[in-house]
Amino acid sequence: MGRFSEKVAIVTGAAGGIGAAYAKALAAEGAAVMIADVTDEGSAEVVKEIEAAGGRAAWVHTDISSPESTKDMAEATKAEFGGIDYLVNNAAIYGTMEFNTLLDVDWDYYRKFMSVNMDGALLCCRAVKPHIRKGGAIVNQSSTAAWLYSGFYGLAKVGINGLTQQLAHEFGGRKVRVNAIAPGPTDTAATRTQVHESMIDGLLAGLALKRMGTPEDMVGACLFLLSDEASWITGQILDVDGGQVFRA
């Protein structure tokens, strides 16, 4: 019996990378997991891997920038597994992200980007509100980019941090906790697309622990924040970053 036996979790953006690691770890500890992603093939593969390992999972095509799609996500999860206990807001535009400044980025692209990377977490929280059980928990995916110059990506993560703190109060009366994880430089396919190999040494030089993070480094923090072990922790942003940023 795992920490999450008889529990139900939604993980957005779980067709690969850190999201897939979250989903597999939750399933390994007993949760039934709904994979919510726009990538159907990857979602189906993660479900297959979870089921092959003896876990329970399903997937639903989800565009987190759409109120209708996020509502369908929540309703499909309740129909499939009987309820919702946990939500992990991991989905974001990252691997395919354009590089530009706030002053020059195309406005339509900026609005689409923010509709996913910031508003998407809020839409998913709004969608699960009618269904999430007392004692449940939500984990948002922030980033150390919130404390570094990172253009509109960093701005979206500042928004995620604020959203986490505000929703901690709004969900608190329902006895649902809301926290966030802020990963530092993490070795995923998306990061390898965004960060050229020649930049890695310079990036690691700024870390206290001089290695790239891995998806598995994020898993322990996520499971802890969802679990009853964190029953009096809410509204917090936990850096999992090898000491990239220090906040007093």
Write structural notes for this entry.
By secondary structure, the chain is α/β, with parallel strands linked by helices. It has one domain (8-240): 3-Layer(aba) Sandwich (Rossmann fold), CATH 3.40.50. Helices cover 43% and strands 18% of the residues. The chain contains nine helices and seven strands. It has helices spanning 17-28, 40-52, 67-81, 107-117, 119-128, 151-172, 189-194, 200-205, 215-226; strands at 8-12, 32-37, 56-61, 84-89, 132-141, 177-183, 237-240. Strands 3-2-1-4-5-6-7 form a seven-stranded parallel β-sheet, sandwiched between helices. The longest helix is centred in the middle third of the chain and has 22 residues, at 151-172.
Write the layout of secondary structure elements.
Layout: E1 8-12, H1 17-28, E2 32-37, H2 40-52, E3 56-61, H3 67-81, E4 84-89, H4 107-117, H5 119-128, E5 132-141, H6 151-172, E6 177-183, H7 189-194, H8 200-205, H9 215-226, E7 237-240
Parallel strand pairs: 1-2, 1-4, 2-3, 4-5, 5-6, 6-7
Helix pairs in contact: 1-9, 3-5, 4-6
